[in-house]
């Protein structure tokens, strides 16, 4: 009888175990040189698994001396590239080939190796992997009942986030800094545990980063050069809730059961978004909806009836295609972050699947605004009709989202009616925001502002009037609103004729486009007191600039402002605090203004005069 053990079987001591109980009496043990190479590499790195395997080989030598078995070393040492590809199965393939060449039985504790061997027609003996230790996470000692995450890094003291969701604190939990050796030992033990345990798996394996799922722990292991040192971050949920534990529980239950919906669950990191998403998933499952999840990594704590899918071949679009064949009633998408994620979410929702997406946002309205520029504006209410904002583990705000054809709040001209996305407070029914297109720009207007005298509509109206007048005026322009449909524009005396146009034609065209009556005057006619009224005109250079300071790039065709963190957002561009124009950041993360346009000339002039250019999210 010929036996070829692989690395897992040698490390687990499964060969000597079978020699001791008599099953391998008289057998010839064919030990691949590839196994010895792996064990040496692990032992040289200080891993216990390597030393355990070498100890097993010494036991086999003792069995040869006793005349119980015969041992031979076969094959070749693995090359360096094969050692690096061990995680991809390169060394396992060498061992399988040797078992086939020698007509031997393959002994393994690796379930993948076992299944591949059987598929290739080999004689395979699979034994359950032996978990060294007590099958507990090596760093479990750092977790208490109130510990949400543990943060370990070589050269630093262990830290953890502990407390209730309403009062989480980041604190040092150890007196001694972790060493490189200790971190490597922990990392190796965690990865080995995940591979061997039925309750764990490697969710992601990339050069420099492994993500492990073990029981209810999600563990990220980072190594150089991806990180500047070995780092282990372990996270687990500290609460499991039901929908009954939240405010508006009855109303939300009725809303979910009424029909399949598009829902965004928003909140800041650690606010309890995923915990609420789990509660929604369990509720839907209990009410006879077919529920699936899309996660990378998979860490939602849901029951076995809810299948958790990850990115198929690294692509959530492929996962979505597969899910459409499975026909779920609801899909929980954790997390929706990138433009492609929003596209997948929208496609599945428009295909009729109920979708619940988890989104990072600091305000409830921000979650909805992240769809702007990624989903056609008129389709947003069909994609998302409910926004649930979570703060400190509780439902803070719920918004209802719908479309109406109406004149936007604050405007009066009937010919300004257009499709308006109306965002209303779920509890009170009071409209909170309106989102619509105004003069080719997407604007989000708050309807209940108390902070300033100007409403959101007032500010948008001023900006658009300024834009139109500046297309004709060459000098400074100021706008003062006198009512919902009347404004006074102050320009340089030399610009009066250009702005009014021949026979008043130009200003009449502007009034018709905006639906506002405009009185054009010179700056000298402006009352002195008006200059001190908050919001009566554009900000002057004496005002302190606000927002992100940017350095526009001037190319042969465009003036480009990079805004990678604000894709899809509507922003104001200012020079020394003075308003220049409003724009929507494109999908590529930039604002492009065509050179030769009035806006570009004004922006280039501000750059030439070394004025500070800032961008402010509106």
Automatic annotation (TrEMBL):
Which Gene3D superfamilies does the UniProt record give?
Answer: 5'-nuclease (3.40.50.1010), P-loop containing nucleotide triphosphate hydrolases (3.40.50.300)
Q: Name one GO molecular function term.
A: RNA binding
Query: Which InterPro entries does this entry report, sorted A to Z?
Result: KH_dom, KH_dom_type_1, KH_sf_prok-type, Nucleic_acid_metab_PIN/TRAM, P-loop_NTPase, PIN-like_dom_sf, PIN_dom, T2SS/T4SS_dom
**A Pfam family reported for this protein in Swiss-Prot or TrEMBL:** T2SSE
Keywords attached to this Swiss-Prot or TrEMBL record, sorted alphabetically, are: RNA-binding
Q: Which residue ranges does the record assign to the PIN domain?
A: 1-115
Report whether Ion transport shows up as a keyword of the record: no
Coiled-coil intervals in this record? Answer: none
Give the K Homology domain ranges.
483-580
Segment Disordered: which positions?
Answer: 521-549
Question: Would you identify the family this protein belongs to, as annotated?
Answer: In the N-terminal section; belongs to the PINc/VapC protein family.
Return the protein name.
PINc/VapC family ATPase
């Amino acid at each position: 009888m010929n036996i070829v053990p692989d690395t897992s079987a040698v490390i687990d001591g499964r060969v000597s175990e079978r020699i001791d109980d008599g099953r391998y009496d008289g057998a010839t043990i064919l030990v691949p040189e590839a196994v010895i190479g792996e064990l040496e590499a692990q032992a040289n790195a200080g891993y216990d698994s390597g030393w355990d395997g070498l100890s097993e080989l010494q036991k086999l030598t003792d069995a040869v001396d006793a005349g119980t078995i015969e041992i031979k070393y076969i094959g070749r040492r693995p090359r360096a590239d094969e050692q690096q590809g061990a995680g991809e199965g390169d060394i396992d393939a060498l061992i399988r080939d040797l078992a086939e060449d020698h007509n031997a039985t393959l002994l393994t504790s690796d379930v993948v190796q076992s299944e591949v061997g059987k598929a290739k027609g080999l004689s395979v003996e699979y034994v359950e992997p032996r978990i060294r230790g007590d099958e507990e996470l090596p760093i479990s000692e750092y977790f208490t009942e109130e510990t949400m995450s543990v943060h370990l890094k070589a050269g630093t003291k262990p830290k953890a986030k502990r407390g209730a969701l309403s009062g989480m604190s980041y604190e040092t939990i150890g007196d001694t800094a972790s060493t490189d050796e200790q971190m490597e030992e922990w990392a190796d033990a965690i990865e080995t545990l995940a591979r061997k345990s039925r309750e764990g798996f490697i969710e992601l394996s990339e050069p420099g980063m492994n993500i492990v799922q073990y029981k209810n722990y999600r563990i990220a292991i980072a190594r150089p050069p991806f990180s500047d040192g070995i780092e282990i971050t372990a996270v687990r949920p500290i609460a499991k809730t039901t929908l009954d534990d939240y405010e508006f529980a009855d109303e939300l239950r009725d809303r979910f059961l009424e029909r399949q919906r598009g829902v965004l669950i928003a909140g800041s990191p650690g606010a309890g978004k995923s915990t609420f998403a789990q509660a929604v998933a369990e509720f839907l499952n209990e009410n006879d909806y077919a529920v699936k999840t899309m996660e990378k990594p998979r860490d939602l704590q849901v029951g076995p009836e809810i299948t958790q899918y990850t990115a198929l071949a690294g692509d959530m679009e492929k996962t979505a295609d597969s899910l459409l064949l499975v026909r779920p009633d609801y899909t929980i998408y954790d997390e929706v972050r990138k433009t492609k994620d929003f596209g997948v979410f929208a496609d599945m929702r428009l295909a009729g699947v109920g979708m619940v997406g988890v989104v990072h946002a600091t305000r409830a309205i921000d979650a909805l605004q992240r769809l702007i520029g990624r989903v056609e504006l008129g389709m947003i209410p069909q994609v998302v009709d409910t926004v649930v904002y979570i703060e400190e583990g509780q439902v803070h705000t719920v918004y209802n989202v719908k479309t109406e054809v109406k004149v936007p709040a604050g405007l009066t001209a009937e010919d300004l009616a257009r499709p308006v996305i109306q965002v209303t407070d779920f509890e009170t029914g009071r409209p909170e925001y309106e989102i619509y297109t105004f003069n080719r720009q997407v604007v989000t207007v708050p309807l209940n502002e108390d902070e300033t005298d100007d409403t959101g509509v007032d500010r948008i109206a001023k900006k658009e009037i300024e834009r139109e007048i500046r297309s004709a005026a060459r000098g400074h322009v100021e706008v003062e609103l006198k009512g919902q449909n009347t404004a006074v524009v102050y320009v340089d005396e030399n610009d009066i004729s250009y702005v009014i146009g021949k026979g008043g034609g130009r200003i009449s065209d502007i009034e018709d486009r905006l639906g506002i009556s405009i009185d054009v005057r010179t700056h000298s006619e402006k009352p002195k007191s008006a200059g001190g009224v908050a919001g009566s005109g554009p900000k002057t250079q004496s005002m302190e600039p606000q927002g992100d300071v940017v350095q526009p790039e001037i190319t042969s065709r465009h003036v480009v402002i990079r805004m990678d963190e604000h894709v899809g957002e509507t922003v104001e561009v200012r020079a020394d605090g003075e308003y220049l124009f409003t724009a929507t950041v494109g999908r590529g993360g930039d604002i492009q203004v065509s050179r030769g346009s009035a806006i570009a000339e004004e922006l280039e002039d501000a750059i030439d005069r070394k004025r500070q250019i800032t961008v402010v999210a509106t």
